[in-house]
Design brief:
single chain, 261 residues, alpha+beta, 2 domains, seven-stranded mixed β-sheet, four-stranded antiparallel β-sheet, 4 helices
Length: 261
């Protein structure tokens, strides 16, 4: 019960006020072998006013995780950061994405001078409190068709644990009022939504797909897109040149023979 009350207090401190966190999560594909995960996190004024130290510690933990998976951070303001994590193929994207969104632990006895370059110290006492777990899982399926590659992305999100409950289990504040979440996908040749739950609202414009996610129930998104394959294109060009050279070589002896006659 004591641990539950502590967890509830941290939840209220971070997410207990309406419109407190704006989280934009995007996956940008530049080519078959290069892309980045881009996250923009903005704390609302209500959060920083209510418990700014705990909220900023959460931002610091996000920065630490970004560096652990080889990413970079940009501090736009004390209450807003941009995180960029590079990836080099679908497997690398899924691994880094899912590693980043593992459950997080904060220290209730927060030090406002916490160095984002230092790894978090694990706590063995009750000051180490796990945040409500947001279940997030991304998978990527790649199919190579020589000149192009077909990618299928599946994303599942369950943020219902962010709801604040009363003692009898009644929802006092739903997760939709605590977290504004947007998920986007940018690709070289555009993308198409295959499936999306009713709890996400999607929009497409050229090479950009966006879903404004509702967090009151589990959300499922599937999209497919194609990217050019440099390796396949290079192989095709080499094969074409070899074939052209063989054809010319086969014709040259007959031409020379004709001139001698």
């Amino acid at each position: 019960m004591k641990r539950f009350l502590s967890l509830l207090l941290v939840g209220v401190a971070l997410f207990g006020l309406s419109g407190c966190v704006r989280y934009d999560l995007g996956i940008h594909y530049f080519s078959q072998t290069r892309g980045e995960i881009v996250q923009r996190v903005q704390l609302g004024e209500s959060v920083t006013r209510f418990n700014g130290a705990i909220a900023r510690q959460w931002l610091t933990r996000l920065e630490q995780r970004t560096r652990q998976v080889g990413g970079q951070t940009q501090q736009r303001s004390p209450d807003e950061i941009t995180l960029r994590i590079p990836f080099y193929n679908g497997a690398d994207l899924a691994e880094k994405f899912n590693q980043f969104f593992q459950p997080m632990v904060l220290d209730a006895a927060v030090d406002a001078t916490l160095d984002p370059m230092e790894p978090p110290d694990p706590k063995s006492d009750e000051t180490a409190i796990a945040l409500p777990e947001i279940r997030s899982q991304l998978s990527v399926q790649e199919q190579n068709f020589l000149l192009v590659q077909r990618n299928r992305i599946r994303y599942d999100l369950d943020a219902r644990s962010l709801a604040l409950l009363s003692a009898n289990g009644t929802v006092l504040v739903g997760p939709g009022a605590l977290l504004e979440l947007e998920f986007s996908l940018d690709t070289p040749w555009g993308a198409q939504t295959l499936q999306a739950s009713d709890l996400s609202r999607g929009a497409s414009q050229g090479q950009h797909l966006t879903w404004a996610l509702k967090t009151t129930d589990p959300t499922h998104i599937e999209a497919v897109f194609w990217v050019p394959s440099p390796l396949g294109i290079g192989t095709a060009i080499i094969a074409l040149l070899v074939l052209l050279g063989a054809t010319l070589k086969a014709k040259l002896p007959s031409s020379a023979s004709g001139h001698r006659r």
